[in-house]
Amino acid sequence: MSEVNHYVDYRREGGIAFLSMCHAPVNTLSYELRCAIDHYLDVAEQDQEVKALVLRSELSAFSAGADISEFGTEKSFAEPSLPALCDRIDRFPKWVIAEVAGYALGGGLELALAADKRIATRGSKLGLPEVNLGILPGAGGTQRLPRLIAPSLAARMMCDGKPISSEQALDLGLVNALLASSEHSEAAIHQLLKECEAGTPDNMFEQDYSLSREEETALLEYQAQQARRWTGLKSPQAIIEAVQRGMKSSLEDALALERKLFNDCAASPQARALQHAFFAEKDALKVPGINRDDARLAIQEVAIIGSGLMGCGIAINFLLAGIPTRLLDVNSEALEKARAYIQKTIESGRDKGRISAQICEQAMAALSTASDYEDIANADLVIEAVFEDLTVKQSVFKELNRHCKAEAILASNTSTLDLNAIADVCARPENVIGLHFFSPANIMKLLEVVRTERTSEPVLATCLKLAKKINKVAVTVGVCYGFVGNRMVAPYSREAFRMVLEGASPSQVDSALREFGMAMGPIEMADMAGIDVGCMAALANQHEWQGEESYQALQFALREQGRLGQKTSAGVYRYDGGKKQEDPEVLALAKEIAQSQGIEQRNISKEEIIQRCIFSLANEGFRILEEGIALRSGDIDVIYLNGYGFPRWRGGPMQYADETGLQNVLQGLENLQKNLGAYGERWFAAAPLLKELAQANRSAKSFSNV
Ligand code: 3H9
Asked: Reduced to 3 states, what is the DSSP secondary structure of residue 390?
């Protein structure tokens, strides 16, 4: 007997019913799939011949859990709800075995946890990643997992949100048997059922559990260790509470507690922000007219021009992905240094257990160097990472045009320059694209993919596909000064430096923004990037930024004194023995500049610091959106989350503006414009798009250039 509906394939073989989920692509437990499972549970329950039921998947994933796009909609609560379905499986009067192959995440794993036994194929991934969405496992996971494995380990798994392998799951006791592949499942199922035959199906509702003193201590110690990392975060704390209190109650009461904690988290701005970030990253890959699967160009060999830190960092990405990469530099000594640096970095990854010895060896074997453009004639992709100067870059592109094969993609890593002007020097501008990596390029996840007016669709599609291969989060942007990320950072950093002239100390500015959640404050970031680099960028963008103008004056004065930031052990801060310290000399210098420019110094509140910096950031974001440089507000958020240390739990600057309310952001900007004199008048004019959306009571998210 076999029955198929859209979502489930059901068949009975002898006494065993097989219920296979087939809701492509990843069996999200949508309302429709839940109904289908529930229906076939009825069928299996009523069929006297059925002694046991196997829950499995027809697809390469077991299940990616609850359908996140249903959250907040009626469907999400509609019966059979996911918690009710899991409870039903737990109480099911016949044996239930979950056969996991591929991903079993969130609600997907919770279904499996409610079964009597679990088997998993090698290479499967099991996890409860709800914490990454600002919620906690809400279909029994916070209670069934700690009843199955050590509660402190269960809590760690849920608070980390990272899936574990099926091999680890076996060691922990989370699965009962491991299969070489799903083809071998029949024998394992029969073996498990044989072991079960003596008893009756397990029902966690009817069993007693407790939390031992050792486990409770381990749980609380873990919570204390993570206190700093979890500052401001709601869901990890809720998970600990759910485990600690839940394990001291009946499953019935524990599930009620889980529900309450889940609802609290789900209604929080953090949950909205994290779920926004999840979908924004997926959407960023969707560029109208571009199908990544149509990427026609195979990238089998990459060349990088320039062997500085950036060039090396970029090369490491390709080497680790197993793509032969050639580093070109006219200076052979620099090439030797670069090779040694790359080797050290890759080997350190191996020593820290991040990559295997085999990958390390393959990566080093894939590296080669060259000092002549003729040696890169066969490269499919060339990325230029030389000094940030238009003339220098144009001369490199002229060489590339001369030596590279016709179909090669010619990419620039420029962070600010006009890519159209770079493409102009090539006879094949349709092959030119920007691939803007962020430093350190082997670590930072972000890749701004800059499309010129003439970049061809296959070139863009190929780069987007490649980004996934080298494990980057790619966002397609248009050409303008600084593209999206660096263009927005300019007003953000302008406010930070201006407030130092107005009387805030650098550490006050940095701490306020760190407290807001930024990974780093804007002033310490400027010291890290180099004060000279900031001045150079300001000069390059002359039409907006004039070196002598108020807020920039401090940076130029520091540069004059040779205080270039961390690299000279002094910038805005002093770095005696590597330790960052506020420097009274810089405070005095700021005061002097303020006096000479007629800026009155005063106390500046934390709220003002955050508002001026973050509202300026978002305001520039609205301009970028309006100009069509970014396709959607979510793309801007993805850039800030992955390249600029914006707190993920705030969802990005545009999501923050939406959450604050665009009318409030507009009002805030108007107040600043009014209250900060001529300076405010000049810099706090709201972007027309922000005004328009706020007045129409719309969100940034509701606007799209797609
Ligand atoms: C939960 O379970 C709550 C419960 O505890 C309690 C409830 C009461 N929902 O990533 P991909 C889409 S919370 C909706 O490109 P991959 C995704 O957007 C859930 N959609 O594939 C994409 O759509 P599109 C906890 C989802 O192979 C398409 O599926 N679970 C969901 O690179 C393909 O995805 C998670 O947090 C979802 N749950 O990676 C797991 N999952 O094509 C989240 C995927 O339109 N998911 N989509 O862009 C993942 O981590 C990855 O998708 C996965 C596959 C690793 C599974």
From this structure: helix
Q: What is the pLDDT of residue 180?
A: 87
Active site residue 388: no
560 included as an active-site residue: no
Contact criterion met (CB below 8 Å) for 578 and 570: no
Mention every residue, 6+ apart, whose C-beta is less than 8 A from residue 168. none
Tell me the torsion sign for CA atoms 122, 354, 224, 512. negative
Q: Does 107 map to a domain? A: yes
**The predicted structure's pLDDT at residue 148:** 95
Same domain, yes or no: 459 and 321: yes
Task: Convert the pLDDT of each residue in 171-182 to its tens digit.
Answer: 999 999 999 887
Give the domain CATH number at 203: 3.90.226.10
> How many other C-beta atoms lie within 10 A of the C-beta of residue 275?
20
CA 450 to centroid of ligand 1, rounded, Å: 27
Rounded to whole angstroms, the Cα distance separating 9 from 7 reads 7
Do 663 and 544 reside in the same domain of the chain?
yes
Which of 160, 259, 282, 286 has the most ligand 1 atoms within 8 A of CB, as the residue to mutate?
282
Q: Give me ligand 1 centre to Cα 115, in Å.
A: 22
Q: Identify whether 104 is part of a domain.
A: yes
- Are residues 327 and 180 part of one domain? no
Atom of ligand 1 nearest to the CA of 282: 48
Mutate to test the pocket of ligand 1, among 29, 30, 76, 105 (most ligand atoms within 8 A of CB): 105
How far from chain centre, in Å, is Cα 272?
15
- Catalytic annotation, pick one of 99, 110, 215, 399: 110
Residue nearest to atom 40 of ligand 1 (CA): 64
Q: Are residues 240 and 351 part of one domain?
A: no
Q: Name all contacts of 541-550 with Cβ < 8 Å and 24+ positions apart.
A: 541/416, 541/481, 541/482, 541/490, 544/481, 544/490, 545/490, 545/494, 550/498, 550/501, 550/593, 550/597, 550/599, 550/679
Q: What angle do CA 617, 619, 621 make, to 5 degrees?
A: 70
Distance CA 134, CA 270 (A): 6
| Segments of the chain with pLDDT less than 70 | 1-4, 295-296, 540-550
Give the atom of ligand 1 at the shortest distance from the alpha carbon of 76. Answer: 8
Structural domain containing residue 511:
486-702
Q: Are 78 and 32 in contact (CB under 8 A)?
A: no
What residue owns the CA closest to ligand 1's atom 28? Answer: 25
- CA-nearest of 144, 53, 79 to 107 is 144
* Ligand 1-lining residues (CB < 6 angstroms): 25-26, 28, 61, 64-69, 82-83, 103, 105-107, 110, 129-130, 133, 137-139, 141, 282
pLDDT confidence of residue 207: 82
pLDDT at residue 548 in the model: 46
Task: Give the model's pLDDT for residue 297.
Answer: 75
Beta strand 432-437 pairing with 446-450: antiparallel
Looking at the domain assignment, is residue 437 inside a domain?
Answer: yes
Residue among 13, 70, 130, 407 flagged as catalytic: 130
How many domains, the chain?
A: 3
Rounded distance from Cα 129 to ligand 1 centre (Å): 10
